[in-house]
Structures are given as structure tokens and as C-alpha cells.
Amino acid sequence: MARPPAAALLRGLLAWGAFGALIVVLSHAPSVAPVPAGTALLQVSIAHAGVRLAPCRRLSAEELAARAPNMRAPEICPRGRSPVRVTVELDGRTLVDETLAPSGLARDGTSTLYRRIPISAGERQLTVRVVDDLRVPARGYARRARFVLVPGQVLSIDFKPARGGIVFS
């Protein structure tokens, strides 16, 4: 097998060099800022299943006997769940007030919300409410906190029932 001429090697080297230079340039520009200059970002991320619309019911011995052997669960639970209402207020001004329908064909899944809201930096009073049973609006979760946000800061609002409900991070 013959060696390629020096000119072909030089052209290949120049092509690979140009390709590498393009990668370096594109990795540094254009710059992308996740938060507009001088502002902070409020990130609301909630995924929660509302309470069941009807309670589970214990089957009687006759009802269990009438079912196929593989279908003899002692309780029957309707699948439907309540929508979830999420309210976010910043310094007394409502930013988010949404009622989220449960997902799924049988409306038995989680209700989800994701919002990114740019806000001005500074001292802020934040109030978040999550109501997971719209039949009893007083039931639910609420949290109020005061924050000092600096430009470029991202404040996340999550919902974790195992950690008490509404979590700021």
C-alpha cells in the first residue's frame, strides 16, 4: 500500500484543524444565560396526585365468591382523583393560580405543573398553597417564607409529601 502524498496529509490536517477550531468557537459562543441579567428566577415544579374522589370499599363474601379467583382483591377502589389547585403569590401579587387535572385516561394519575418565572431580585415574601381535594378547599398545604434573592439566583418550589409538603430550595 502506497503512502499518500504530503499535500494530501497537509490538507487532511488543515481540515481537522478547522473542524477543531469550529468546535472550540461554538463551545464558547453564543453564551446562554438561564436567567435574564439583573433578575432572579422562580421555578415551580409540582407533581402530586389528588385524593381519591370516592373511598375504597370492602367487598362482601358473596361479592368475592362471584369474582374470578385472580380478581378477588378484598377491597375495590375507584380510580378517579381530585384535581389539584396550586397558588403562588409573590409580595401579595398572584403569579400562579391553576387547577390541574389528573393525568391518565381514567383521571387517576398525577397532576403536574412546571413554570419558570423571572422576578426582580431583592427581598421577597412568597406564599404557596397546594389543595389536593377541591371538595374541601380548607384542606391542603400552605407555606409562607421570606427570601432575599440575588441576581442570577434560582429559587425552586417543589412538592414532597414525605418532607411535609411544599419545599423551597
Which keywords apply here?
169 residues, Immunoglobulin-like, four-stranded mixed beta sheet, 17% helix
Question: How would you explain this protein's 3D organization?
Answer:
The chain has 169 residues and is α+β, with helices and mostly antiparallel strands. It has a domain at 39-52 and 81-168: Immunoglobulin-like (Sandwich). The chain is built from two helices and ten strands, in the order αββαββββββββ. It has helices spanning 6-28, 61-66, and strands at residues 39-48, 57-58, 75-76, 84-90, 93-100, 111-120, 122-131, 141-149, 154-160, 165-168. The strands form three sheets. It has a four-stranded mixed beta sheet with strand order 6-1-9-10, with no helix packed on it. A four-stranded antiparallel beta sheet has the order 5-4-7-8, with no helix packed on it. The protein is flat, with a radius of gyration of 28 Å. The N and C termini lie far apart (64 Å). The relative contact order is 0.20. The model has no long low-confidence stretch (mean pLDDT 91).
Main sheet, how many strands, which sense, barrel? 4 strands, mixed
Radius of gyration: 28 Å
Q: List the secondary-structure elements in sequence, H or E.
A: HEEHEEEEEEEE
Kindly state the mean pLDDT as a whole number?
Answer: 91
Number of helices: 2
Helix content: 10-25%
The low-confidence parts are: none
Structural classification: alpha+beta
**Per the principal axes of the C-alpha atoms, what is the gross shape?**
flat
CATH fold group of the domain at 39-52 and 81-168: Immunoglobulin-like
Task: State the CATH architecture of the domain at 39-52 and 81-168.
Answer: Sandwich
Strand content: 35-45%
The first-to-last residue Cα distance is: 64 Å
Provide the spatial order of strands within the biggest beta sheet.
6-1-9-10
Beta strand count:
10
Instruction: Assign the CATH class of the domain at 39-52 and 81-168.
Output: Mainly Beta
